[in-house]
């Protein structure tokens, strides 16, 4: 019940933010996601002034979305509501979970409530990546993100990059399959063994 009330409050806050963000000819896109089974990274603080000595949060789940802006969008607004304590990051270009400070552009971890984050401003045409994540490894679940801008843009989910352990398991599996195939006995060309087996 508390989660439902919290979600209702944060959805109302998002609706308010989306209403404020609308321009005369603004394009508005809303999408939902769930970080429950998402890949993980070591989350950094939202404020770059705290790097490199700031706190880090390993094992934090995230989902990333490519945002391609075809024409200038001034202003461009992002608003996310979550059923968990969440943060939202914006990167110029690609997001690298192994180096979350690279391409960093903006972030917010507590706008209206810990369950509603937002930021906005002018963006040049090009490729950006938005990342929705929990505050730490214990925070994950469903979310809704609304993006609005005066210019044309598209949004697509970023396919998760397999973790090194997944590549290792794939390699081990292929190696095991290769060994199993090589161990198979070559078919016998002798009829004696075949006749003895039938008797």
From TrEMBL:
Residues 1-26 form the signal peptide. This is PEP-CTERM sorting domain-containing protein. It comes from the Bacteria. It comes from Pseudoduganella dura. NCBIfam families: PEP_CTERM. Residues 160-184 form the Ice-binding protein C-terminal domain. Keywords: Signal. InterPro entries: Ice-binding_C. It holds the Pfam family PEP-CTERM. Transmembrane segments: none annotated.
């Amino acid at each position: 019940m508390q989660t439902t009330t919290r979600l209702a409050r944060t959805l109302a806050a998002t609706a308010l933010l989306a209403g404020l963000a609308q321009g005369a000819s603004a394009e508005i896109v809303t999408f939902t996601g769930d970080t429950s089974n998402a890949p993980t990274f070591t989350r950094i603080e939202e404020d770059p002034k705290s790097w490199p000595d700031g706190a880090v949060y390993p094992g934090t789940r995230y989902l990333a979305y490519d945002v391609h802006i075809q024409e200038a969008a001034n202003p461009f607004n992002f608003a996310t509501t979550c059923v968990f304590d969440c943060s939202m990051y914006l990167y110029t270009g690609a997001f690298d979970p192994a180096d979350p400070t690279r391409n960093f552009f903006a972030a917010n971890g507590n706008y209206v409530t810990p369950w509603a984050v937002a930021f906005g401003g002018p963006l040049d045409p090009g490729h950006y990546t938005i990342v929705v994540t929990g505050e730490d490894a214990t925070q994950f679940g469903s979310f809704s993100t609304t993006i609005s801008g005066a210019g044309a843009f598209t949004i697509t989910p970023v396919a998760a990059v397999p973790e090194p352990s997944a590549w290792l398991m794939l390699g081990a599996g292929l190696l095991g399959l290769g060994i199993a195939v090589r161990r198979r006995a070559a078919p016998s060309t002798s009829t004696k063994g075949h006749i003895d087996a039938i008797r």
